[in-house]
Amino acid sequence: MTGPTTICEVNVPLPVNLTYFTAAAQKDQSVLIQWGSASEQNVQGYLPETSTDAIHWGSLYTAPSQSASGNSSSDLKYSYIAQNVPAGIHYYRLFEMTKNSVKIL
After folding, report:
1. How far apart are CA 36 and CA 78, in angstroms?
2. What is the superkingdom listed in this entry's lineage (predicted)?
C-alpha cells in the first residue's frame, strides 16, 4: 500500500437484523420488493431505492416500521410493488431510517 491508510473496526450493533431482501420482476412490468427483519431497534421505517446505473439512486417509497414503538424482537415482513418498470437492468437497495432521522444503508 502507498499513502495514508486507515483501518478500523467498530463493534456497534446495527438497529436492524435484516433476514432477506429480494427484488423479483413480475409479468406485468412491475417488480416485487420484499424484505424481512428478525429484530428492530429504534426504527422509524425503510426506504427502498432503485437505480439503472448503480450510481444515481431514487427513492421508491417510505415503509413505516410495523412495530408501533420502532422496537421488535419478532420477525417482521415488508413488501412493495414498483409499477411500470421499464425493460432493462435495475438495481435495488434498502435504507433504514432510525427514529433520530439517521439514514443507514
Report:
1. 6
2. Bacteria
Mean pLDDT of 39-64: 95
Q: What is the pLDDT of residue 9?
A: 52
DSSP assigned state of 71: -
Helix, coil or strand: residue 19:
strand
Residue 79 lies in a domain: yes
Tell me if 37 is assigned to some domain. Answer: yes
Model-wide pTM > 0.85: no
Q: Which backbone phi and psi does 11 adopt, to 5 degrees?
A: -100, 60
pLDDT class for 105, splitting at 50, 70, 90?
low
50 and 21 Cβ atoms separated by less than 8 Å? no
The x, y and z cell numbers of residue 31, run together, are 417488480
Range(s) of the domain holding residue 66: 16-104
Q: Is the dihedral of CA 43, 12, 7, 20 positive or negative?
A: negative
